[in-house]
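Why do we care about 3D structure at all? Because function follows from shape, and shape follows, mostly, from sequence. That is the central idea of this module. The next example makes it concrete: a single protein chain, its amino acid sequence, and then its structure expressed as tokens.
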Amino acid sequence: MLARTWQLSQNEFGRQYYAAGVRSMLDSWHNFLFNAFDPAGFVSIDKPPVAIWLQVASAKLLGFGTLSILLTQVMAGLAAVVIIYALLRKYWGRTAGLIAALSLALSPVNVAVDRSNNTESCLILVLLAAAWLGMRAAETGRLAMLCAAMAAIGIGFNVKMGAALVLAPVLALTFSLARPGAPVTWHLGRQAIAGIVLVTVALSWAIFFDLTPARDRPYAGSTRHNSMLELALVHNGAARFLAISTPAGNPAISSPAASGATAPATTAVRQPVMTDDSPTGPLRLFRPRAAAQFAWLLPLALAGLVLAWLDARSPGAPVSRRISAGVWTGWLVLYWIVLSFAGGLIHTYYVAVLGPPLAVFSGIAVAGLWSRWKAGKPGRMYLPLIIVATASWQIYLCMAPSEGIGSDWLSLTWLTSIGIAVICAAVLYALPQQGSRFAKLLAVASIGALLVPPTLTAASVVLRRPNIAAPVANMTALLAPSDTERQALRTSRLDAGRQKLISYLTANREAANFLVAVPNANVAAPLIISTGLPVMAIGGYLGDDPILTASDVERLAADRQLRFVMLGGFTLAPAKQAAALDPIARWVRAHGRPVDPKLWRLAASSGTPYRINLGNEWVEVPPPELFDLWDNANGNRSGEAARQQPR
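And the structure:
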């Protein structure tokens, strides 16, 4: 609980893109239904709606704010821990359940995503519900339970699209293998019905969205053809698995362009890389960069996988154990393969989905190894052996980011904890069997010591402010001095700059429908959060959606719906945005009047180069500029031109 709630407010609104969508949906059922990003319903969020809807419900109940939005993920994460305990206690015993729940509770990446407003926490919760229903379906052979499991995965599709579907074949196969003697027609009929349920639930919202006339709904964000099905297949589908050129920027902070501030060319702050650009292949998740997020107990979990199948196939073992082992093995193997070989836009925190099966097998391992130790030779050697193997693995993970081992309190802490685990393992191996009470204390101490490194890693996103848009745990962050004061000063400056911009826009907006039009959603989000007013993201999330043409902007200005347009500033895709919005930018510069920066920015100069961090590369982009499309002379010319445009 503390790991997910302590200093939660330091994460502010998390990914502001989603928070702006929550603000936009609070007072409009139309925006809520279509998952709109902005209050005017101009463009949708480029994710399905279920996780965002839960955040809206929380904000509606508790009031719009940072805690009400983040609390949704906190509760989902805590619920996942409880479900893991319940499932393991039922199938593998209380000890296995407690260790599994504790492992998941302290998994660094799961702590990180549960403290953000990303959709992983909701996805994991839905997948756990589907796994439970799938196990019950395989145990009972009931079609209704299988359909319920597939419906849960369909809901998961409406949380994070294709990421949820990986579990579907696991549950379908487990259901059929649980009854090998049933006729083929029995299997085919039930699988077909369950498949229909899955497809119906999964695609219901996307089809509803696409069948609604385009004029009556937002544009489908991050698509070329205004289609939610395209979003599922391309941006949230093929682009995640195929090596397509994608941005790796860092929207973890509020956009200076949306506050009237700029990042000077001398800025040297190095931001974390959002995407995982490590080489694909079978070793990808074994590298410290990914493994340190979720796999601190990997040798223990692998031992648990073996023990689960040995116990499940032993004489007299209940069939429910075999079903449970099959579901968790399938979950682990399929998601491991997908994340290992996905060559597209993959964020490191996606490995959070592997947290539950690894926690499950860690719990099974501890319970199984302890029972074998008590049974005597030769089984008593396995527990100490696996403890030493896990300790060795943790040394590998700890040494990767460390610069001087033993020269700081952090390395001394993990060295001590790993040393304690190894010493306890050695004593366990040498201890006579009759000393079981002392042996239990040693076993508890060794497992507790092995939990110290993941706990320290998880603490890095609790005691230090992480990249709040793409949270990644990093143990060495604990060595850095707290930047609370610097962050507070930066936030204060951004807020002051944004307030000056908003004050100018609201004072001069007059009857315009939109407060301002900006290039992309990352610039629009903080303005929407601050005001709740319609702000147009001309090019959607990345700034390259083909939503409007120059003629459309001209018509909006002529119809007095849009007065101010901002060009330049923050972007995750500089080249894509520049190419997509160039015709609009040229028209705005030709027909709009530049607004004096002194009126809307803290810094009067508009020529300061604006720098953004794309992964490990700093890129200069044009500074933000504000244009007034209602200048008398230009406004009249715009109106005459618009009236001559064919409608």
